[in-house]
Here is the input.
Amino acid sequence: MRYLLVEDNIQLARAISDRFALEGHVVDHAKSLNEAREFMDLTSYQLILLDIMLPDGDGRFFLKTHRVNKNTTPIIILTARSEVSDRINLLDLGADDYITKPFDFRELEARCRAVLRRQDGSADNKLELSGTILDSLEGTLKTGAKIEKLRNRELRLIEIFFSSPEKIFSKNHLMDRLFSFSEDISENAIEVYVGRLRKKLDNSHVKIETVRGLGYRLISLK
Here is the structure.
């Protein structure tokens, strides 16, 4: 997953980014609202983590504009305000959730997972296709009695495929979802990860198919 973190506290931002990087997520850190808008002009995000008090304005205005423009990307507010009226106001403006500073990183991760599940219309952390089960929380692929453990970026890549079976994803799109702007990565990296996943899908009823000239897609063999 690719997240946008809008937070002017450098120490906190680094801690959040490092934490999510351990899980294989990409986090682009914007220190201001203007920088956040510049990032959003360059790419799309699956989730936005938004502070309220920023050097160039109030995050609530960013949130309101985000929703007025019909942008459905989920937003979780990072706030030091604990008053009920403030939390109600944030939810009414269009926030999907909020977490009060200081917070436990495990709670932040859980809230991100919950918001993303709601976005996908899923009730739990598991996705299934033709008898193969992806457990995003455990980081495993289960095919029959066989369970394959996934490394972080393998997990994030297979999540993309499982979330939209039959959809063709270009290498550029997959690179954008898996790697940050600061990483100097070639398209060969995607080929390597796809190759690893194909081995782990051996003997299953699903396959990552190459669509010549376009990219890859996950298909059912049943």
The radius of gyration is 18 Å. Residues 34 and 56 are 7 Å apart (CA to CA).
